[in-house]
Amino acid sequence: MSKKTDEEFLHENLQLYIENGKTLSQIDPEIVNEYGNHSVLKLICMHYWIGFFCPICYKNLKEKYGYNLAYIDTMAGAGVTANREGNNFFCGSCTGAIIRSNNLGKPFDFILAVESDKTRGETLVKRLSSIFSSQLFQVYSDSLENVSDEIVRFVNSQKQKTVSYIVIDPEGFEGLTWKAIFPLLTCKGDAMITWFEDGAWRIKQAAVQDHRTAEGQARMIEELLGPGWRTASNPNELTDLFIQRVRRIPGKEAVGKVKISQNGSPYYMLLFSMAGNESIVKKWENEVSRRIGSVDRDDLSTLLEVESGRQKTLFGSFK
Ligand SMILES: C[S@@+](CC[C@H](N)C(=O)[O-])C[C@H]1O[C@@H](n2cnc3c(N)ncnc32)[C@H](O)[C@@H]1O
Questions:
Q1: Is 226 left (phi over 0), alpha (psi -120 to 50) or beta?
Q2: Which residues pair with 195 in a beta bridge?
Q3: Is the dihedral of CA 1, 33, 77, 185 positive or negative?
Q4: Distance, CA 144 to ligand 1 centroid (Å)?
Q5: Over the stretch 40-77, which tens digit does the pLDDT of each residue have?
Q6: Which of 40, 109, 112, 254 is the most exposed place for a label (fewest CB within 10 A)?
Q7: How is residue 35 annotated by DSSP?
Q8: What is the pLDDT of residues 253-292, one digit of tens each?
Q9: How far apart are the C-alpha atoms of 258 and 271, rounded to whole Å?
Q10: How far away, in angstroms, is 145 Cα from ligand 1 center?
């Protein structure tokens, strides 16, 4: 993988996302998540780790000890993302992850997805059924907070032990509570979390103001970060508080952080893995940062247009 130029790497990834997005969008074409140009960089972060995770777990845990490999997408969306105009499609995190692992020849044994929006959840079921009929999957159409304990029980009730790759990808802080994510983070395996640093800072600032909503904001941030947030003097300290809280969970000690710039307001993809995996997590951090850093922010939308245009030329018009 590392031998490819950044340009080849991006081209290959974008084509994979666009081609599968187009196919999957033929089911319920109106039901999509909307992407910002940077959503694709987020997908690359998630799926690049699958490129490390699946082969290692397959060899060291599945083949040697009979473990199941599970993919758990806790805010999975509809399985397809579209641009605002609705004419360019990408596969989503869940569908893309499965395609990636299948392409590696190290498929997940089962897939669990949560999507609180009923319509998106139903469409995700159809899209997954259309391409992964041989794999076991379950979509929970509910808020993560209501089902995370049930998911952990399901994982632990399997005859074989399970190692999971968990994705937690909220829009801002919607649905991101400690109560919702903590049970999942105790599962054996890795977790990737989208973290909006500036959003956290805005909540913190609102929470220390003297106005009506302050109490609600304070409760929310305390629930997610634990004590210590009041004295944070900059956004980065809040991110560190969150990271340190997750790192105290056994099996989540190794941490990587990739910055994704979005109109001057960066967010982060945080990766948590077990102690001992520090060097591979660093490798992910460095390689992904270099790959996605090679795309100039202003060039990204042009690049997406060009790559989508290539698909249109290859497969005919989308409409
Ligand atoms: C950023 S989108 C996810 C996009 C998806 N990961 C992808 O890349 O294709 C967040 C999704 O979480 C869903 N959501 C919001 N609150 C939720 C909650 N409490 N539990 C589960 N899903 C939730 C939203 O409906 C939305 O589809």
A1: left
A2: 268
A3: positive
A4: 9
A5: 899 999 999 999 999 999 999 999 999 999 999 999 99
A6: 109
A7: P
A8: 999 999 997 666 789 999 999 999 999 999 999 999 998 8
A9: 8
A10: 12
What is the C-alpha separation between 116 and 216, in angstroms, rounded?
22
Whether 285 and 49 have beta carbons less than 8 Å apart is answered as: no
Coil vs helix vs strand at 180:
helix
SS3 97: helix
Name the token pair of 35. Answer: 């992407």
CA 314 to ligand 1 centroid distance, Å: 31
Reported residue count of the chain is: 319
Tokens of 206: 């609102």
Beta-carbon neighbour count of residue 181 at 10 Å? 23
Q: Whose CA is nearest to atom 8 of ligand 1?
A: 93
With a 6 Å cutoff on the Cβ, whether 190 touches ligand 1 is no
Do residues 242 and 197 touch, judged by C-beta distance below 8 A?
A: no
For residue 5, report the phi and psi dihedrals to the nearest 5 degrees. Answer: -70, 165
**Interval between CA 170 and ligand 1 midpoint (Å):** 5
Distance, CA of 45 to CA of 78 (rounded, Å)? 19
Domain residue ranges of the chain, discontinuous segments joined by +? 6-315
Q: Provide the whole-model pTM.
A: 0.93
CATH for 6-315? 3.40.50.150
Question: How is the chain split among helix, strand and coil, in percent rounded to 5?
Answer: 55, 15, 30
Q: What is the DSSP string of 171-195?
A: STTTT--HHHHHHHHTSSEEEEEEE
Please list the alpha-helical segments (H only) found in 248-277.
none
Cβ of 20 less than 6 Å from ligand 1: no
